């Protein structure tokens, strides 16, 4: 009788752990939407409202396009496509992204900002931390190609940075990429850092969630591999930006990608800034780094 009770207790505990892991895994891939509650006019910017399909054609994405009145005449301009982080919006409020957009537009570059699927004002109900979001960036690239013929640079923050690398690896028209606080490979990153997002102890929940997630949403995190993507982007330039004090995505992620091709890639490491916090601490230096990179495309 005692062994039966012990067995029943073990099964019950196991079911509870699996239930918690399934619930948290579902929440992580279906984060609550944040609203777009700041507007370009507050920064002296004039926007064009745009809607375009993800390249996968399953969702419509909402965004803004800013045409720079200072773009060079008689030569091909450059459009910067911004991609925000996990569970955020185009505003990337930690910067804020609209302040950076203002600096880029004033220096003669066009900017496209948009919300990923299941974010802000865009359609969709699933967040995949790069796998499907890559299709969203490719959709933004296609919109630029059809409406504003120009060179293209991708600029992404956190998840948006990794996703930008994935997209650039598949789209040869991308002239360069800038990433801020990007992860290099989703599967090992989650294995080491999932408690940051799940708020649960590493054991037993991290292996349980990672075992359940692919079956839950039909997507394997191993396919989100920015480290492999940078090899396909080379010899096109990439600027990696990361704080050494980032407590969400270790700076070694960016350093590892930079080390693949340091002859072409650039790495700017800051200190004392949190995740995607370098701009907020050093806005002038940040603007200078970004604009210098853009001037060389």
TrEMBL record:
Q: Does the keyword Cell membrane apply?
A: no
Q: Which residues cross the membrane?
A: 6-26
Q: Does the keyword Hydrolase apply?
A: yes
Q: Name a GO molecular-function annotation.
A: hydrolase activity
Organism's domain of life?
Answer: Bacteria
Q: Which Gene3D superfamilies match?
A: alpha/beta hydrolase
* Keyword vocabulary terms for this entry: Hydrolase, Membrane, Transmembrane, Transmembrane helix
Which stretches make up the AB hydrolase-1 domain? Answer: 79-199
InterPro entries reported for this sequence: AB_hydrolase_1, AB_hydrolase_fold, DNA-binding_regulatory
Q: What is the name of this protein?
A: Alpha/beta fold hydrolase
